[in-house]
Batch of 3 targets.
Target 1
Amino acid sequence: MPGHKTSPTCALAPVCTMALVMNLSTREVLSWKLGTTHSSSLTHIALIQALRTHPSPAILHSDRGSEYLSERHQATCTRFGITLSASKPGKPWQNGYMERCVKSIKEELGPLAQFQTINELYIGMTNAIAYYNTQRIHTALKMPPRDYVKNLRNPRKLPRMVFGKRGV
């Protein structure tokens, strides 16, 4: 979608780390990567996965994490024509959409102690993100993100009405 913004994030530390890429317009999680180290490789893979299946966003917004401000991340954004944006220091609300997304996924996932292995956690994350994208109703959208995306692609044709009369 031309002109849309996406946002990545890392969370779920200290057990592991997660990088997410979300379309801020639709609130859909476009890609994610789970890892055991907090690095620019993790965020780079999540971004590349998103770009494989979705058009390049006009803007990629993130917090001020070193992995998002790394030369590698900046070079990838430049190569795909993406303007890099970061929250201002001390203003975490500027990344509020992503913070809320991560909170929702964590709530759906439940306590991390229930997962004995990284594979179990991966399955739990897959299910939590699928729920977030396909079933969780977002207040602003009044529907789940995937339904919102479908509506954007196939808007309902409303009968043309002028002054309450059809077909005028």
Note: The radius of gyration is 18 Å.
Target 2
Amino acid sequence: MTGSRAPSGNRDYTARTGTTTKMVERTEIRLAGEGGQGMILAGIILAEAATIYEGRNAVQSQSYGPEARGGASKSEVIISSGEIDHPEVLLPDVVVTLSQEAFRKFASTVKPTGLLIVDADKVNSSSVPKAIRLPITKMAFESTGRVITANTVALGVLVGLTKVVSRQALEKAVLARAPRGTEEMNHKALAAGFAAAGRVKKG
């Protein structure tokens, strides 16, 4: 997504709905890339999709590399159907990396049964055969003319493969954060991500 700054600090998006669940479903997600690729904002949007538009609980946190741009930055999101007692990502179910440095630091943190998604044009992931390789940045440029929408494409891929939130919830969250005049561009980026996820599922 372009034009929207991600605010700093950790966020607890706990939704107080007054409901109880017998079985708590918890999903841990780590989104990583270079500074400037928008992965912090992507994490915020994902958490807002879960809480604002689905009434679930979420915690989002972030950290930056030593350089403003070029160093690896990461955003972590926990989404749960119940209370989140431990607001730390320990063993992520999903890791998305859009840069080689992010891959080097975080690819190995995904749980053995988890999902690793990498930008095929930015990351040499030959050391991890199970990784899902998609040209995320290229898809962003082809669908919108702007590589900066790669984070939105990545969200479409992630949600299309995992259904951790609904497509409708994610679309609403993305458009709510999109600066005026960029709604159509971000919608196209999201659609490109979902389409790619659909191709992966079909094999």
Note: The chain has six helices and seven strands.
Target 3
Amino acid sequence: MSKPNSDKFWLEPLLLQAFQKLYKNDSYLIEHGEEYFLPEENIDKTIGNKSYHVSERGIVFKFGVYLQEIANCDERLRNYDIDIEYNRKGNDQKKVGAENVCPDLIIHKRGHQEDNLLVIEFKPHWNDERSEDIKKLCGFIEPPYKYENALSVLIGISEPKLDWVSNKTKGKEGQKKLKARDGDNE
């Protein structure tokens, strides 16, 4: 089997299918990130009267489940591993510069650096500061990791915003907003 085309645009429809499933089936995880005040009778004295967000990891996990389902049916991705919070580089810890890092989601082949296809960093709408994520992604497209594609995702309330990061533009490449609409790709 030949190596997948490194062109990021063949990945977009597959990612979009996973986002469609996420927004359709798990909108609760996304929509309940807004901070709101609880009624007096529900106030927990230890945390006050504010609600708290669903974990970003919970959203990334569900996205990963849907992406794995899609990958299992796609010849280009079938032999790749999809992992969340994967912090290994062989037997060592992943580092960008001197900092230990765990990318939110990666598509790769475990155990070596030759087939690192995609690294993704996610931010939910209630925490939309992505500058540190962009720096981290720039580190992942450089040696020793050499990911072919890097993506910063802002999980909006109704749709994701995807920003492809390249070593040429360092995150300033044309931003592409993909709509996660209900579709036929279930």
Note: Residues 56-72 form the longest helix (17 residues).
